[in-house]
Write a structure and sequence with these properties.
The complex is a heterodimer.
Chain A (H helix, E strand, L loop, with lengths): L1 H17 L10 E6 L14 H10 L4 E3 L10 E3 L14 E5 L14 H13 L15 H6 L9 E4 L4 E5 L7 H5 L27 E7 L3 E6 L18 E6 L3 H9 L5 E2 L5 H10 L4 E13 L10 H10 L2 H8 L5 E3 L30 H11 L5 E7 L4 H15 L2 E7 L1 H7 L9 E2 L1 E4 L9 H5 L20 H16 L1 H17 L3 E12 L9 E2 L3 E2 L8
Parallel strand pairs in A: 1-9, 1-10, 13-14, 13-15
Antiparallel strand pairs in A: 2-3, 4-6, 5-6, 7-8, 8-9, 11-16, 11-17, 12-17, 18-19
Chain B lengths: L6 H5 L7 H11 L1 H18 L1 H9 L11 E4 L2 E4 L1 E3 L8 E3 L20 H37 L1 H16 L2 H15 L1 E3 L2 E3 L5 H10 L1 H16 L2 H8 L4 H37 L11 H9 L7 H28 L3 H4 L1
Helix pairs in contact in B: 2-13, 3-5, 3-13, 4-5, 5-6, 5-8, 5-9, 5-11, 5-12, 5-13, 6-9, 7-8, 8-11, 9-11, 10-11, 11-12, 11-13, 12-13
Classes of the chains: A alpha+beta, B mainly alpha.
């Protein structure tokens, strides 16, 4: 049944893609705009949505998420491989058949060596998830420990059968998801083993970079060596050219898109422009729910939030509806109490921190909040809220400060540059007590929220890359998450039930104030047609028609 | 016997008015300066009345978020932050100005707080910071300028080097750098402890950065005074240095400092607004005119009054200070007549 639904979704996606395939739809320049560059342009290093949205049109992995709009976008489809393998050997072996006749944008042919080199390179360039995702490949741990000597024996190629085989240390229900993201892009075999920074690396995708200037923008043109092998995996794309201009503020971006100077803007539309675009440019607005959580992690290792009662006091006092207002209202955000967003498998609605606790948040419970606060003995404690210096996070930080002061803390708020805030709040040396931040999925799996945000492995003292910002570590919960991961390989239903249980346990521990999940608002020009939004990659620029 | 009958008494001319009295009379005759002074006094009084306004007129705490609050407007209960009326239900708009004395006279900001009440509280902080930091600046400038100009030699060289070093930085770059560094953890040097959210922090920073701009002219003035006959005479009769500085030099420097005062206050007010606008001045939930402009920036399309109101307040105050400064210069500077 599940397979039938998946096939139907894909067919629907494909049909929608085909709907626009008139010859006259091809060509033109899609003009995208954003506020700034976003770090390294190396697909195995960069960990930002801003670039993931364009990497997917330039690079391919062995498998990928279907590049279609709607629900079908979470389906994994073959890309540079001809198949999506079913794991064997109790879920520890994956055999891929490599597609023939594909070339990189520099004319080099796709080879087995390129595949092997790309996976070894993941460890050599210290890819953000090399230690958490790809070390499941046999030899991955050794590669993490000594990247310069990485051989990755768990990756075996056979030229005779044209196969690439991965041997895993243990079954991993999310291994295919992890192969489908940009980190696992297959790059030419001679790509240097270091972060390429601002030098674009050739890919096999429909587009290649013609020029990249971190202070001005990117120009992408068609890859001359590309031929479409799968419309789902790597569609040919409609625009002949895609430009991505850097340097306009969000306010200016709105005006520019309204005036038709750009076709799409990356940044969230500022709150004071929402009414304007929703009134005058209704047809240019696209709203899509995404797995994106806005939350306020509390450091459980230092006062005052090493005290459960103090954390509970904050949980019950926060008016999540007020926080939603700061984000732009109910059309853009949905209040939540739990870690998992609604579209993630394992999600079971749950909210213990509300008046009349039930499945959804209804109102703050100040009576209970004050009781917990009194019980905690933390009245008068100094708290500093760290928040990004950008709307609406800054406003949410100020609101949190207000709530903390009302509870009896002495709260300050420190807005800091969004460029450094995310790393700053992760580093235990900075002794951050509570902060405002967000987390969006890498792929639609419960572990990408629960495991990544709260497992002991994700907590690294003194590191800027310690995504377990709360600093929570409970081996018992880790064991439960490991069990859920293993069971999910063979029994998704039982696995999801276990994940739901973990979600509830972590929520009850009040490790963070989970505020709301958001809807992505895309504002496009009047001339842009055939807007397609993937749950995984978000806006698919190559599917937009701009002629 | 009446003095009127005494020819000796009637022949004596009334004593000439003193320097300050003359200056005072000149200043009173300067209408623009007096109007400016009156404007400043009114602004200061309004700002001083901020707590009363918040309690009795606005009937709200301007430092608390009121995101889910309501208010009576035209007999109806309306939300302070209401969903915008558009087909997609996108966006939230703070309540607009009523333009009547009462709650939300100038509307609400993005946290649902009364803008008028915050404007008065903000003005209080802006004026406190600018006046005290100007006091610090003038005090430090007077001390360094007088010591440097009077003693010369190594004292002059060391002080001049320090002032040059301070002067070498563009003033806003220096202010921003100091603020960014100090705003995270405050100052904690031995007995000196300044909390990051304390007003003392921007006061100190702003008070220091303009010292060279006043100290240099004061030093030049003192070098001139040091060569004047009455100072040389005082030195010649063996008067102690402190006495000469206090009784002969300082009174002659004060008039210059008084002329500088309104200009430095105006500069400090603008600097405070700039730093607060950049989130490195007055820290939330406290307000200053700069922080209110910053809050208003995100509402510029829907509720421009949030940014415009403090902007107007700054313009009026700085204009009044500059006109008053001009008036004081004309009144205190004997050469002003020549210029006129």
């Amino acid at each position: 049944m599940k397979i039938i639904v998946a096939v139907l979704l894909l067919v629907a996606g494909l049909a929608s893609a085909r709907a626009a395939t008139n010859k006259s739809d091809y060509g033109g320049t899609l003009r995208m705009v954003t506020v700034s560059a976003s770090g390294s342009f190396d697909p195995q290093v960069n960990y930002t949505l801003r670039y993931a949205e364009i990497f997917q049109a330039m690079y391919d992995g062995l498998v990928t998420f279907a590049k279609v709009g709607g629900a079908g976008s979470y389906q994994i489809v073959p890309d540079l491989a001809t198949n999506v393998p079913t794991p064997t050997d109790n879920g520890t072996t994956y055999v891929f058949h490599l597609r023939q006749g594909i070339k990189f944008s520099n004319g080099q042919a796709l080879t087995m060596q390129a595949v092997v080199h790309s996976f070894r390179r993941l460890f050599k360039v210290n890819s953000p998830n090399a230690g958490t995702w790809y070390d499941v490949i046999v030899g991955g741990r050794a590669c993490n420990a000594h990247p310069e000597h990485c051989t990755l024996p768990g990756l075996v190629t056979d030229a005779a059968t044209n196969t690439v085989t991965f041997h895993l240390r243990h079954p991993d229900a999310e291994f295919l998801d992890q192969l489908a993201v940009a980190f696992a892009s297959i790059l030419p075999a001679d790509t240097p083993d270091h972060d390429m920074g601002t030098t674009p690396i050739p890919g096999t995708g429909a587009y290649k970079v013609q020029s990249y200037d971190p202070s001005n923008g990117i120009v992408m043109v068609r890859n001359p060596y590309f031929h479409q092998w799968s419309a789902l995996a790597q569609p040919k794309g409609f625009p002949a050219r895609i430009t991505y201009r850097f340097g306009l503020s969000a306010e200016s971006q709105v005006t520019a898109v309204e005036n038709g100077q750009y076709d799409w803007m990356y940044e969230n539309v500022p709150a004071d422009r929402l009414n304007e675009i929703a009134t005058h440019d209704t047809k240019q607005v696209h709203l899509t729910p995404v797995n994106w959580l806005i939350y306020e992690p509390m450091n459980v290792n230092i006062p005052p939030f090493n005290n459960l009662d103090a954390r509970l006091a904050v949980e019950f006092a926060i008016n999540r509806e007020s926080a939603v207002k700061l984000f732009g209202g109910n059309a853009l955000a949905i209040p939540t109490c739990q870690v998992l967003p609604p579209q993630i498998p394992g999600y079971r609605p749950y909210c213990p921190f509300t008046k009349n606790p039930d499945t959804t948040w209804t109102a703050p419970n100040w009576k209970l909040a004050r009781q917990y606060m009194k019980k905690s003995g933390m009245i008068g404690q100094r708290v500093t809220v760290i928040t990004p210096l950008e709307s609406p996070y800054r406003q949410i930080g100020i609101y949190l400060q207000d709530i903390l002061n009302r509870l009896g803390f002495k709260a300050d708020v420190k807005p800091i540059s969004p460029n450094i805030e995310f790393n700053y709040i992760q580093n235990t040396n900075n002794k951050v007590q509570i902060s405002v931040t967000d987390w969006a999925q890498d792929y639609p799996a419960p572990s990408d929220f629960l495991n990544v945000l709260y497992s002991c492995n994700s907590f690294r003292k003194g590191s800027d890359n310690s995504i377990n910002i709360s600093g929570f570590c409970d081996p018992a919960i880790d064991a439960e998450m490991e069990k859920a991961e293993l069971i999910s390989v063979t029994d998704a239903k039982t696995g999801n039930a276990l994940w739901a249980h973990v979600d509830r346990q972590l929520t009850r521990r009040a490790l963070a104030v989970n505020l709301f999940t958001v809807k992505r608002l895309d504002f496009v020009s009047a001339r842009l047609k055939h807007f397609r939004f993937s749950g995984e990659y978000f806006f698919l620029p190559q599917l937009a028609v701009v002629k | 016997m009446s003095d009127a009958t005494n020819p000796l008494v009637t022949d004596i001319a009334p004593p000439a008015p003193g320097y300050w009295a003359t200056a005072g009379r000149k200043l009173i005759r300067d209408r623009a300066a007096i109007v400016s002074l009156a404007v400043l006094i009114i602004i200061a009084l309004l700002c001083a009345a901020a707590p009363w306004y918040a309690q009795h007129i606005a009937r709200t705490d301007p430092f608390q978020s009121n995101l889910s609050g309501t208010v009576i407007r035209h007999g109806k209960t309306v939300e302070v932050l209401a969903a915008a009326n558009n087909p997609l239900h996108l966006g939230i708009e703070p309540i607009g100005p009523s333009w009547r004395l009462g709650p939300y006279m100038l509307g609400a900001d993005d946290q649902g707080r009364d803008v008028a009440a915050r404007l008065l509280y903000g003005g209080r902080n802006s004026l406190i910071i600018s006046f005290i930091s100007a006091g610090i600046c003038l005090g430090l400038a007077a001390i360094t300028g007088i010591l440097s100009g009077y003693f010369g030699g190594w004292t002059d060289r060391i002080i001049s080097w320090l002032l040059d070093a301070l002067w070498a930085f563009p003033v806003f770059l220096l202010a921003i750098s100091l603020s960014v560094v100090l705003i995270a953890h405050g100052i904690d040097i031995g007995p000196i402890r300044l909390d990051a959210s304390s007003l003392a922090l921007p006061i100190t920073i702003i008070g220091i950065i303009y010292v060279p701009y006043v100290a240099r002219p004061v030093r030049g003035l003192v070098i001139g005074l040091r060569q004047s006959e009455y100072v040389l005479a005082a030195i010649g009769i063996g008067g102690p240095a402190w006495r000469i500085l206090w009784f002969d030099i300082l009174p002659n420097v004060i008039s210059s400092l008084v002329v500088f005062a309104p200009l430095i206050v105006a500069l400090d007010l603008l600097t405070e607004a700039a730093l607060s606008f950049l989130s490195i001045g007055v820290q939330p939930p406290a307000a200053s005119w700069g922080t209110i402009i910053e809050n208003g920036e995100s509402l510029i399309y829907t509720r421009p009054i949030v940014a415009i109101a403090p902007g107007i307040a700054i313009v009026i105050t700085v204009l009044a200070l500059n006109i008053l400064g001009d008036g004081l210069r004309d009144a205190l500077d004997p050469r002003a007549k020549l210029r006129n």
